[in-house]
Amino acid sequence: MPPGKYDPPGPVRAGPAGATVVFFQGDDGRHDVFDMARLPLPGWWIPLAEAFAQRTGPGGALRTRTSASGAWWCLGRWMRYLARLPTPPADPGRLTAANVEGFVRFRTAQAGEETAFKDVQDIKLLLDMDAIVSLLAPEARDSLIRRQPRSRGFGQAGYSDGEFERLLAAARADVTQIRDRIGAGEELVRRHGNGAGDGKAALLVDMAASGRVPRLSDDGRHDHLTRRITLAQHLFLHLRDLAPLMVLLCALTERNGETIKELPAQHKILDGRAVELTLIKRRRGPRRWFETVTWEIGPPHRALHTPGGLYLLIHKLTARSRAFCGSDRLFCAWRNILELGGDDVAEHYPPFADKLWGEVKLSKWAGDRRRPLLADAAEGREAKPLQVTFNRIKTSTEVRRTRRLGGHLPSAAKSNTMQVLFRNYLGGDPVIVEWAHQVLGEALADAEQAALRAHEQVLNTAGGSLRVVTGPADAEAMQREAGLDAESARRAADGELDTAWTACGDHVHPATGKSCEASFLACFHCGNCLVTRDHLPRLLGLMDALAERRLTMSETAWWRRYGPAWAAVRHDILAKFSPAEREHAERAKPTDILLDLVEEPWEQM
Prior knowledge:
Layout: E1 12-14, E2 20-25, E3 31-35, H1 45-56, H2 65-83, H3 97-111, H4 113-127, H5 130-133, H6 138-143, H7 161-193, H8 199-210, H9 224-232, H10 242-253, H11 257-261, E4 268-270, E5 274-280, E6 290-296, H12 307-317, H13 319-325, E7 333-334, E8 348-349, H14 362-368, H15 390-404, H16 409-412, H17 418-426, H18 430-462, E9 467-469, H19 475-482, H20 486-493, E10 503-504, E11 529-532, H21 536-550, H22 555-573, H23 579-587, H24 595-598
Parallel strand pairs: 9-11
Antiparallel strand pairs: 1-2, 2-3, 4-5, 5-6, 7-8, 10-11
């Protein structure tokens, strides 16, 4: 500790040339320096520096160098636009609403409406900082408050089941080759140490001890660089090896690519069953980046199927390179540096220490394999190369976990909130949409069967089966097919026995011995119910009314109230008439007005 009182320097300081600079130290270990002298309008420098330091400081929302640099580039576009105005605002207090509106029009014409909205949002968040917000005019602050021009679409769709299975199979096959290749090299080094081995083993022993890969002469050949890479791959991971390892690790851990790239080498093994480590989950707000996870190891022969087993395998494969470069990150690899006279040990490095993008080209790996990965082919078209991204892999894992858990979002939300899980991963994904349709279809089929069973149970209790008369509905047919006496058959043929949608063969219920007081919807479950083709138009109108009522009620309430009647009409009545009879009735179908009348008002509350 420094002696006496110690005041640590703040992020805003004077640069080498006397200009104001902001020193940035991110939660991801990366740092940068932002020089206000690179911006026009010096009157803005000091308040902007204080605001930028607050936005990117420990309590701010931008805690990575990438996000801080993105805000800095947006700030540069804003300041350069203001400087080009005929009368630029020399300081924040002179900013006007017209300046903001002009910037919106400029960015919309230059990059589109959505990009302009994002830039204005970034500028607003910066100018809302305490160091500068009080300097702005109220009209200028209000003009920065904008609604999003349009809702954003869902995230990138994942892979189909077939594509995902092929992707994982290819990654496992390539990881197996990498493991066996380096294992064979290590075995040669071990055997040479025991007094066995040849010249190649001696060369590998020297490489293992020094970390330096010999520079091979071309000897008139042009493949010396390729042969050097092949030699190095006997002991070290090469950059081209990272793609299948990271694809498989992303799928097994169900984590995004950013988290995979920043996995630490430090870990604990818990009782030989699991590995515990602390990983970085970005974009979770200040001081919520770090999360301790426990991954299953499993038996040795299942190392490529468990997240902990694969993590420990990668840790072993990268151990030599990590020792030579001194990194604390999991992923370390060897690269072929062409400059002569350089330090060959520097060829070992952590590829994601400085930045998280680049280095690994997943789609190139998928297309350059001996058996390239192909996407599902559309009907009548040739299959195209599979585009592999970490986002699509993450979406695929989220979809499959949600499907395994029966669609229960609170349980499926593993590393994101339920809202983020649905908006960015599940919503709009073809696999989850198809699965949801299947689940909904099965649920509707189950509900329909339950309603039909309830209808049949009540019907059996109330007197047998419905009496449905197809063909001509005269008195003779009523006697012959419905079993009515001559007088009842005549009255039924004349429509004197009609109720709301059907006819009733006996208004005195045989079970109770008194006049029926049940709802007309209950007629469909009564053995006295009589249906002829003259009733078809009204029944079709009732089915339309039930469909409309379904849009205004929950599925559970609709099936409970109308399901048995709907099932009875669909299965026990309409199915017994010919298509021609149903088509003729469809043309004469009325708009149903009886459904609201046959129910008691309090049943509709």
